[in-house]
Every structure is written in C-alpha cells, then in structure tokens.
Amino acid sequence: MASKSSSAPASGPAPQYLKVKTHLREGIASGRWRPGERLPSESELTEQFGVSRMTVNRALRELHQEGMVDRVQGVGSFVAELHRIASTLTVRDVHEEIAARNHRHEAKVHVLEAVKADAEQARQFGLRAGATLFHSVIVHRENGVPIQCEDRWVNPAVAPDYMKQDFEHVTPTHYLLEVAPLSEARYTIEAEMPNALEARLLGMPRGEPCLVVKRATSSLGRTVTAVRLVHPGSRYFLEGSFQA
To answer: Rounded to 5 degrees, what are φ and ψ at 54?
Structure first.
C-alpha cells in the first residue's frame, strides 16, 4: 500500500531490521535471488549490515510470514515459489510502510476500551456472547496528513496486555505480530463511504469514498484480531507487483 501524500520527508532513520528486510525483498523482486534459491545466511547478513542476529532473524521471519521466504531449520532461508508469492497479501505495519518512504508517521489514539462481544463478534472470535474484547480506534498520519483510521477488536486471551501499550509509539500491528505470530489472514478490500466518525477523524469532505480493508488474523488456530482499515480514496492506493 502507498500514500499519495507528497509532504517533505522526515529525517528519522528506518529501523535496522527493516533495512535488512527491504534489501532482501528488493533482491527477490529484481530477480537477484530466484524462486528456490538460497538467501544469504543469518551470519552473512549480520556481518553485512553490522546488526545483531536477532535483527536479521526478525527480517527473515517477517518475510516468511508474508510468503516470500521459506525457512528450513538447520539449512537456511530460500525464496518462496512464485505461486506462493502471487497469492499472498502482505500484512504490513503502517509505521514501517511510511518509514520505508522516509516519511514521518504519527498516531493518535481516539478509543482504547474493553467491550462485551455481541453475537457476531463472539462467533468470529470463537467466544461466548458477552465475553470481553479489547477495542481501539487509532488514526495514522503520514507527514501530518491522516491516511488511515484503524478500528480494531482484539482477543484478550491472545494479547492480554493490549490495553497497556502506548499505541502512539508502537502500532497494534507491530505489537500483535510480536505476541501472536501470524498463521492465517482473511481479508476483503472494498470501496465504501466512511461512517460519520471515520469521516470526521480523517478530515474528509462529504461524499468522498474510501478504500476499506477488512482483515481478520489468527495465530495457532485462535482468532487474534479483526480490524477495519479505512483510507481516504484521494490520499491512498493499493500497490503491488509480480514477476514471472
């Protein structure tokens, strides 16, 4: 996903693991490493980038979760076959997405609460009706321009400390991927009109449509989160590529 915002870039450096991840992703996309080929080892990447083995491991782990890399314990990491890459929608952290463009990310938490699950939410999360869910509404800005309203529900059994996090400095996506590694994601992408709250939080004019991503993720057979990501149509677009 990419924003149409054209404000001046921020000066803050990208996280070290993101540099490793971007290097590998771009190498795969350019054909430097072909499907089935082995990638540089963790030791080689650690030496090349001057970072810790944990940093390199995170970059490879996220590429594996995104379907771009296969990891074989004791052997190494390999570029995934094309059919796996083509069928994968990346679950990306909006902060990392913005940082990769050398832009400034800001987040404002508007709602952070514990709520009782209604019948539909209970079914989705595999809980009883009335069970507790965590709920947050956060607006993400790129160089000061609001580009995403994130309306999220979270399973407390999987992420019990969700309400204790400072989501103006650590995004929910980043936190949840740390405590509950992704094993499955289901999503829809639609053009919709924002509701009144979303339009107000995003500063949208009346009648402007949105690009809405609805996503539910699971870890080890348990639903972790369900989220509605609303993006102003004039400021945001979906972008991707595939090479045979």
So the answer is: -60, -40
Helix axes 53-65, 42-49, angle to 10 degrees: 120
Q: What angle do CA 210, 213, 214 make, to 5 degrees?
A: 130
pTM for this entry? 0.64
Is 3.75.10.20 the CATH classification of the domain at 104-237? no
Share the mean pLDDT of the chain.
86
Give the DSSP per-residue string, 2-27.
EE---PPPP-PPPPHHHHHHHHHHHH
pLDDT exceeds 80 at position 66? no
Q: What is the pLDDT of residue 184?
A: 83
**In contact, 113 and 126? CB cutoff 8 Å:** no
**Which residue type, as a one-letter code, is found at position 116?**
K
Residue spans of the domains in the chain: they are: 104-237
